[in-house]
Amino acid sequence: MPAAEPPRSSEPAERLRVHGRLSVPLSDVTIRTSRSSGPGGQHANVTASRVQASFDVLGSRSLSDAQRERLLARLGPRAVASAQDERSQALNRELALARLRDQLARALVVPKRRRATRPSTAVRERRLADKRRTAERKRERRPPEAGSEET
Questions:
Q1: Which architecture does CATH list for 15-108?
Q2: Residue 128, C-beta contacts closer than 8 angstroms, at least 6 positions apart
Q3: Where do the domains of the chain lie?
Q4: How far apart are CA 133 and CA 6, in angstroms?
Q5: Within 13 Å of residue 128, how many CA atoms lie on the same side as its CB?
Q6: 6: which strand partners?
Q7: C-alpha triplet 46, 49, 54: angle, nearest 5°
Q8: 41-50, 60-69, 75-84, 136-145 — which is least confidently predicted?
Q9: Which candidate, 117, 18, 32, places its Cα nearest to that of 70?
């Protein structure tokens, strides 16, 4: 029977794929477990099924300077996601990592620059016509003025 091969160090470490151009090594993500809050009876009292995944933005070497600045501006120095939805710690770990990945991906989105535009003439005229109609409707709701009555 042949002996099992030891793991090779050249194999890529597990990574958290944030989007196409960025994947963060799981060694940069700190995973902490604790007891879940809420109901659950005896199982919840003895199982550390709540998982909290945190990512140190300042300490990560997998980020470019632009990505680091964007994350610091939007999330601060540490991005944290937790999960206690499931009874299983393994499922909560996957949920917390997915939430962390989504949080990082949303924070890294570069907003589209707004180009200033002018409203068209038709839109401007429609708005003014609506204002005139509204003013006329409100004018019709008013009680008749005292000086306009003839006796």
A1: 2-Layer Sandwich (3.30)
A2: none
A3: 15-108
A4: 81
A5: 7
A6: none
A7: 135
A8: 41-50
A9: 18
**Residues written for the chain:** 151
Tokens coding 110: 């570069």
pTM over 0.85: no
**Residue 53 burial (C-beta neighbours within 10 Å; 0-12, 13-18, 19+):** buried
Q: Are 32 and 89 in contact (CB under 8 A)?
A: no
Contact call for residues 50 and 44 (beta carbons, < 8 A)? no
Q: Which pLDDT band, with edges at 50, 70 and 90, does 41 fall under?
A: low
**pLDDT tens sequence across 105-129:** 999 898 899 999 999 999 999 999 9
3-state class (DSSP) for residue 91: helix
d(CA 55, CA 78): 6
Tokens found for residue 8: 């090779």
Buried b (16+ CB within 10 A) or exposed e, 77-113: eebbbbbbebeebeebbebbbebbbebbeebbeeeee
